[in-house]
Design brief:
By secondary structure, this protein is of the alpha/beta class. The protein is built from 15 helices and 11 strands. It has a single domain, classed as Rossmann fold (3-Layer(aba) Sandwich), CATH 3.40.50.1820. The chain is globular and about 50 Å long.
Length: 328
């Protein structure tokens, strides 16, 4: 599944240029999907994809219930060499993760004294607590090789070092929500240029209020059947299985929802005021030729749209990406 990630020669120079960050890119999406899967491993499999792709400083970061896969490699761009820092947050895997998911309280995203213009931005408290925990532990993430050395905490504080970095944020489910929040923090709190941040999420829930969406870029739907181009502030691609209730895909009408296997019923997120940001790339298993056969070959199991694990877990998203190929 997604074998090209391990056997295709990638042009790292071009893949992360500013004009290549918006919209769907099969190569980066495939790499991100494999890394999102790898972030769940607690054995040596976690580093397989990163090491194959030439990353160094590959490590599995964990503290408490928080786990992240981290790697770095040098790339060259038209603006000079950059350190491509890839941070992949693991999704829900422990009881505490689900308790964090259920903490739906809204909390302030940025310090009101330092950012008075953004005082109305509110985000999911439980998930934001995880992001804070990661930031407070950033001194434990140390890069020993490559163009930029030092702890992540030092790099984020050092403007010169920050300008030499490109941050690739990735995550599935809860991990995708954390990747979204940390990408927004990188932009506003740490002052990283949006052209130096790319985010891929898979099956991630919405995590901010309407002011969060207005600040970081809201786009309700980008179907794989359409080539809609709208600019968003964050370079964020959000992959959604239309049958997955966690990311709460939106449908125009009942007919479209029924055709794609989703639900037109307003999810709890809407009642609570949470909205998505970024560019939604949605796929429907029942509309993808070969999806069911590919899923069974990949997992050894039949796909069942009524089974939460089979519609939400990374196996379904990896199969969806493989079946999509290059839509446009």
């Amino acid at each position: 599944m997604l074998d090209y990630v391990y056997h295709e020669s990638f042009d790292w120079t071009a893949m992360f240029q500013a004009d290549q960050l918006k919209g769907y890119d099969r190569r980066k999406a495939g790499i991100a999907a494999c890394l999102a899967r790898d972030s769940y491993f607690n054995d040596l499999r976690y580093g397989q994809t990163l090491l194959t792709l030439g990353f160094n400083d590959v490590r599995l970061f964990y503290t408490g219930n928080l786990q992240a896969l981290i790697g770095c490699r040098d790339i060259r761009t038209s603006e000079g060499p950059l350190a491509l820092m890839t941070i992949v947050f693991r999704g829900s895997d422990q009881i505490q993760d689900w308790l964090d998911n259920l903490d739906f309280r809204m909390t302030r995203f940025l310090n009101r004294d330092r950012f008075p213009l953004f005082s109305r931005i509110r985000v999911h408290n439980g998930i934001f607590e995880n992001v804070h925990h990661f930031e407070n532990s950033a001194q434990k993430v140390v890069f020993d090789h490559g163009a930029v050395k030092g702890s992540l905490a030092q790099i984020l504080k050092d403007e010169t070092k920050r300008q030499q970095c490109f941050f690739w944020m990735i995550g599935h489910s809860l991990g995708g929500a954390m990747a979204t929040l940390f990408a927004a923090r990188l932009y506003d709190y740490y002052g990283v240029s949006p052209d130096r941040i790319l985010t891929h999420t898979f099956g991630a829930p919405p995590i901010g209020n309407r002011y969060f969406a207005a600040r970081y870029g809201h786009q309700s739907v980008l179907s794989m059947e359409k080539n809609l181009k709208r600019n968003t502030l964050l370079n964020l691609v959000r992959f959604v299985n239309s049958e997955d209730p966690v990311p709460a895909p939106r449908f125009i009408d009942h007919a479209r929802a029924e055709a794609e296997g989703g639900s037109i019923t307003p999810p709890p997120y809407k009642i609570l005021g949470f909205k998505h940001v970024g560019r939604e790339v949605r796929f429907s298993p029942r509309r993808l030729s070969g999806f069911y056969d590919q899923y069974q070959t990949f997992t050894g199991r039949r796909y069942n749209s009524a089974n939460f694990m089979k519609v939400h877990f990374m196996e379904a998203y990896m199969t969806g990406l493989a079946a999509l190929g290059t839509p446009y």
